[in-house]
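re: ur question from earlier - yeah i can do the single chain one, its not a big deal. heres the input i used so u can compare w yours
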Amino acid sequence: MIHDLRRLLRCHPRTVDLVVAATLLACSFPGSVMTLPGRALEVPWWPGVLVTAASSLALLWRRTLPRTTVVVTLGGAMTVAALGYILTVLVIGPLMVALYTLARASDRTTANLFTVSGITLLLGTSLVVGPATEPLILKLVGPVFWLLLPTSLGTTTRLRAAYLEAVQARAEHAERTRENEARHRVTEERMRIARDLHDVVAHHLVLANLQAGTVVRLMRSRPEEAERIAGELAGTTRSAVRELKATVGLLRHADDSDTPSGPAPGLAQLAELAASFEPAGLSVTVNTEGRPRPLSAGADLTAYRIVQEALTNVTKHAGTGSAEVRLSYSHDRLGITVTDHGGTAKPASPARPSSPVPASPVPAEGYGVLGMRERALSAGGRLRAGHRPEGGFEVVTELPLLPHTQNSLA
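and the output i got, formated as tokens:
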């Protein structure tokens, strides 16, 4: 009920101003005939009514011209005081409403300045030309109280409205922030899954393609070797299906019983990863420098995927049959370097016959390199990839290690 009334008043401000002006005009009649107890009215009532009516009429412009309205109503109040009327709320009501409106519409300094000026002028007029029979305490206390009250109420209302507006703005900002954060997390998750799919598909399909081609070439001349490689091809495809199922399973609901579970790959499986490239004709050497120390789960998976993608790129693009993976453990960082020497044709092997050197090795800004760089940044590290001056291609990654406090607890 109260909210409906407030909404109705806000929708019809002109009607509200007319009602306020009419009410104050009606109050001016008893205010103009009010006297002290036991004393007769010394001035006629109608001049006070006319002056108050003019002041009330000025309130119709209080929303658009609040300062001018205060000046006009203050002049009316001073006129009433000079005519000898008692300064009660019934005759200075227009000035009170004007001061309330000014306090709501302007800053505190402006409202206080107009209020103090109005009190000073009104008291001065009352003391100098006001009725001599009126008690001094009534001349001083009454106007001061009645003019300070609307200014205080107006300032309080303005501050409350500003507070509510600030609270609403903060709530809207928080809602937008939550929505943006949710969209950002969804985007990051999509990019992470896309990188996983790219790494899994690229790695296993390259190996499967090379093995299938070798089987076709050796089927007549060396059927036993072709049969062995076909068996390895089946293992490669099973591994691809398994990793694809694990990656795509992340898109399912958490309570789906079909969602695959199991440990994520990491540097502990680096030897198996290196061995998986042998059927493709790539010999991978793994060297470790420093004392191995654990990484976080995310950094461990990132390191594995970067090595996997780098070796896959060597298999697809580099003109060499060997690559080197070097792990360098320092105080707080793990350095991973994947290097191929390039520049020569890959040696012939049962799994992969000799092939010429590609005209252009892997570009430094392909999707594979871009994905590796994004992985490194997401784990708090950095990655650099490019051609080596002495030939070949090199991928250098630095990832943060777990703090010593966590190492001691592990």
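The CA atoms of residues 201 and 240 lie 7 Å apart. not sure if urs matches, ping me
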